[in-house]
Amino acid sequence: MALVSRENILEYIPQREPICLVHTIYECTPESVKTGFNVEENHLLVNNGHLTEAGITENMAQSSAAHAGFLSRQQNLPPKVGFIGNIKDLVIHQLPSVNSEVITEIKIKAFVMNVTLVTASSTCNGEPVAECEMKIFLQE
At a CB cut-off of 8 Å and minimum separation 6, what does 126 contact? Predict the structure, then answer.
């Protein structure tokens, strides 16, 4: 069961179509978030029937944004805009195909002022898609 469905996701993330890469928030705590993204053939970051490397990376960053947005909405604040400051140890295992769902988990390692350090991991059909560490800067 989803906490936030596709119909409401834009209330929680600053991204808009055609670049939106999170459709669902399944779980969210102050320390982590679990999101879903349905890979659609006509998406800007799908090529030859698969989500591109850029799409996978952006999905992880937007999942982090969904975490911040969900927590902000609980305080009746709008979602903050974030920027990727650094990507470390990115490994991409596979490119998810059209009509599959990418599940991404973000775990907060540290939060200092407006910088969040996270670990991100994505799966599709129970198989690893990618993992990395990201530094996200939130705009005040």
Answer: none
| Cis bond before residue 128 (omega within 30° of 0) | no
- Which sequence spans correspond to the domains of the chain? 9-138
* Count of C-beta atoms within a 10 Å radius of residue 81: 14
Q: Are 63 and 73 in contact (CB under 8 A)?
A: no
* Dihedral of alpha carbons 87, 91, 93, 94, sign: positive
Q: Residues 80-106: pLDDT tens digits?
A: 888 999 999 999 999 999 999 999 999
Q: Please, which residues bridge with residue 29 across strands?
A: 32
Cα Rg of the chain (Å, integer): 14
Q: What is the pTM of this model?
A: 0.96
Return the CATH number of the domain spanning residue range 9-138.
Answer: 3.10.129.10
